[in-house]
Amino acid sequence: MIAHAGAPTVNLPELDVDAQDAPSLMDNPSTGTTLSEGAMRQQRLQSPDAAHLFSKVPGVSLYSAGGISSLPAINGMADDRVATIVDGVRIEPACPNHMNPALSYVSPDMVSTATAIAGITPVSMGGDSLAGTIDVERRDPKFARRGKILFTGWGRGAYHSNGGGWEGAASTTVANDLLSLNYSASYAERGDYHAGGGEGRVRSTLYKTYSHSVTAGLHKGANLFALAFGQTDTPYEGFANQYMDMTNNRSTFVNGKYSGVFDWGQLDVRGYWQRIDHVMDMLGDRGGHSWNTGMPMNDKSRLAGYSVKATIPLGTWNTLRVGSSFDHQGLNDWWPPLAGSMMMGPNTYHNISDGVRDRLGHYIEWEARWTPKFHTLLGFRNDLVMMNTGDVSPYGMMMDVGAAKAFNAQDHRHTDVNFDVTALAHWDATKSFSLEGGYARKTRAPNLFERYAWGRSAMAASMIGWFGDGNGYVGNNNLSPEIANTASLTAEWRDPEGQRWDVKVQPYYTYVQHYVNVNVLSRYSSGFNLLQFANHDAQMYGINALGSYQAWSAPKWGKGVFSTKIDWVRGQDLQTHSGLYHQMPTNGVVAFDETYGNWTGHAEVELVKRKSTVDVLRAEPRTPGYALLNLSAAYNWKYARFELGLDNVFNQHAYLPLGGYSLADYKMTGRLSPLEMMGRSVNASITASF
Known about the structure:
Helices cover about 5% and strands about 50% of the residues. By secondary structure, the protein is mainly β. The chain has a 22-stranded antiparallel beta barrel. It has a 5-stranded mixed sheet with strand order 1-7-8-5-6, with no helix packed on it. It has a 3-stranded antiparallel sheet with strand order 2-3-4, with no helix packed on it. The longest helix is centred in the middle third of the chain and has 11 residues, at about 400-410. The chain is globular, with a radius of gyration of 25 Å.
């Protein structure tokens, strides 16, 4: 953002924890990627889905869901197994299909920093998860220098030809040196997209969402306090690989933050409250809904919690971090009766009744710099996860009547005592080579639906599940927490004299005890299965690699950079010897970026191998490989930026490897196939600032 002349912004103080100014393992871990502003701009041009910001990050892939609700996966583990944090808050999905994940509540335009940690995750960056961490932060309040007034802002508009999508976002700030007030808003709307190769539209891929937020900031000395209020509305969002669509979702939140620097160190405190009201039914392109048609399903969730983190320098070479956090989730999931329906009535179906999941966590972490070239990180964490739910009731079908009675007769209280350990070491062997490796023990307790979804009828069970596979799911009150043991090594080679080239290779191995997978209970006449969540042992292993090479940098030619990344992962259920669900096949990106004056250009080729290793228990579809070409260019002019992109240049027809089945098309046409990828799309964007 550009301030008015004479009113520059002021930077808040940061804690200096090392007199030698050596990089911290927390600031720049080799196992993590913090996206540059340029990388985020490139992804914003393609999609309004905040999860899409990470689509080119090594080790990260996306479960395809709604247009703004992709579920990130890291090293083959997704959704609840990834600690997804927005402004310091873990937002739990309030939906049996996980249609409203944490990243669906933040527009990519509002994101200031975005970090993905794959491999060894420090305990201070999240517990109750197995894979890495995705951490997204909105912009901190801006302040003017003493005696000045700051008035600044920006606005952006975008268009996508495939599906006729429109986006808009704006933010404005007025501040002096003590107080700051910001208003931000965003909007995105798109119709059903068309598949490549002239295959026609893909049903239930449309969406509409908008959000507003107000942030007040107070800055005095080394202290910052910020309080944000906001609301996100999604009137509709299609889910092509689910039996239902989202027909309304409203999230209202309050988020407070304090950061202060003292003689002893730095203190960061956060507190939050969030209300989520969620409604599912069927959109018009798969039958629609009215007072006596469709299948209404409602969710109401209340989230609240706090986190406290203290960073304490212990002399010149050591840093201690201690923290505490508490997260409360209260959830009601009920399905109102449908007038005149024999199946969906006469009673209200209570799927989760007064469900509660509370998590109390504490950690301690010690970072030591033994020499300027050798650092270590050791952390311990304990999370106490307490869960319970009330009695449930069925519509009236005999199969579910018996299941409800059996469920209500059980004791639903669970207290899981989870322990995490992280040990990490980093060695700068030479100017051109460094090595980072370690071990992590991570633990995750089951979510509310994995333990408490109880319906046995085909209709009820098929409404449960966030996998897009068409199967029905039943919870398991006897599930144990998952325990993952991960070993990872990252080797990096780089140009010793500058930044002309860089290569990074990261192999990893994870063994998971009590992995929450499934057992087959029965088979439907449709060919899909009735599955129950169950604990199995599993393993995942793979390699992430990336590299870059600056081919030239001169006033006459500008700067040209080639880059690439390759991901390979395999997952196996050690009990059934089947592949794990939704493991991304070998894939890579080869890209070229050119900067010349105010011009930038980007060309990339996405390469994805045929998906042949699948989960046979879920009848996961196999998909062919593909190669896509994407192009974009941008021009900066004074206070404006113009961007133009062309995705899937040759309009290739392809299927999404993690897209599951196209169930909306299946219902309307009777043809069952994997979910098709979007075809060619022209993307245009204009950003102006003042």
